[in-house]
Amino acid sequence: MDAYNLHCIKPGSKVKLRDIDPSKTLGLQGPEDQERAAADALRDQNIGVMQQLQYRLWAEAKRSLLIVLQGMDCSGKDGTTRRVLGPLNPQGVRVSSFKKPTDEELSHDFLWRVHKVVPARGMIGVFNRSHYEDVLVVRVLNLVPKGEWSLRYDHINDFEKLLTESGTRILKFMLHISKDEQKERLQARLDDPEKGWKFALGDLDTRKRWDEYMDAYEAMLERCSTPEAPWFVIPADKKWYRNWAISSIVRRELELMDPKTPAMDAELKGLKIE
Amino acid sequence: MDAYNLHCIKPGSKVKLRDIDPSKTLGLQGPEDQERAAADALRDQNIGVMQQLQYRLWAEAKRSLLIVLQGMDCSGKDGTTRRVLGPLNPQGVRVSSFKKPTDEELSHDFLWRVHKVVPARGMIGVFNRSHYEDVLVVRVLNLVPKGEWSLRYDHINDFEKLLTESGTRILKFMLHISKDEQKERLQARLDDPEKGWKFALGDLDTRKRWDEYMDAYEAMLERCSTPEAPWFVIPADKKWYRNWAISSIVRRELELMDPKTPAMDAELKGLKIE
């Protein structure tokens, strides 16, 4: 089970989201709760390795990792942040949530507010939504003319190239849920007094435009998955599968980066504190 | 065992750090590992309540909490962040570490860089070191003239008043370790290949000025513990005691704040998703 190769969008390939099963499982024999237990155990192993490597990334302080989370409402961006990235040392993680741009943000280019919060050396940055909203909601709702948003794919690729060539590794995850699963999760949110506040009528408008959003996601995946900053489409109807897959890919990336704890100053060796 | 009243510095009181035992325990009968187990269980309870209340603080999005951690090298600022605040949802926590100021920061007043990173509504901010360095290291090493640093206590009180009257609750913890305990921890850091890099020769200079630092801490505690933004001196030789005490005080504060999850829009009640 190689989550990276299973879910990475090969640069230049065509993407048909309807052909990707959102309720994919590991494919083990036996009942689902058995499979889930296996996936959770692997996730915990992945997180253990991630914690060790995060310490070294921080100690090394030369490179950084940026994790981008995109997906429809209820696709699990918050849950992924909590379950997969929550166990990391909070000192080395910075979560940025991108909401409706402010007036000041709108008075700059669309990457201005993003550039300000990219992870510093040693840090892991998490984007809950991102600059990709500028080719998703902005495209679907025509918030800027087509002549403007259609240029953004290249702007984004150039921007991410600057980051990757400056020491930031980028992993981008589209959390892929089915329309039926979204229905259940939205309904559960509505019916739970602790969660109902999260619900806005606008969420229903977005749901009505599901197919237009899928088109926008496909264009984004086709145009912006690069070798240095690949997109992954993560089947996300089953949260345990999603957590296994994302933790596997993050772990793999940190292992490839192989950060090194710096050596101690030679003059300190053998020193006895008084 | 009321950590708040045990360790809060009453505004206007005199502080003698040498009279506060850094190796304090809960004072239960029995061997230390039994006491430690009891403290860890209470800490976990505290963290469970903190997690629930953090969700509501975030949902309410009207107020924020700022936690300031100060202490000598090896006093446990990183450990507290990881053990007590690490289990919170990372989306609602922002840790800011204050290092040597940059040229741009030095070209502004000392609170400029601090103000930029105070927690937004709904957030919990953690300062690993803080604006108090400007009356600690700056005072001990005479980095600015006395005429300048001596004004800063009032500047800090006024700044914190602005924050507390704008919806931010502030809890300030001085992690109080003994000079002997620091010796052991510094030595352990030196002797561990994964931790030796953290050690700088400057740490030894700071250790040599221990008494001057204690004087500076006492002045800070006496002048800047206010009813709205109290200082706590936390005995920190025993990490389990420290974690119990700080989690108890943070839990108490969140309970007093009593954030409320907003009600759902009335028009959404009974809605069925299609």
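Residues 64 and 168 of chain A are 5 Å apart (CA to CA).
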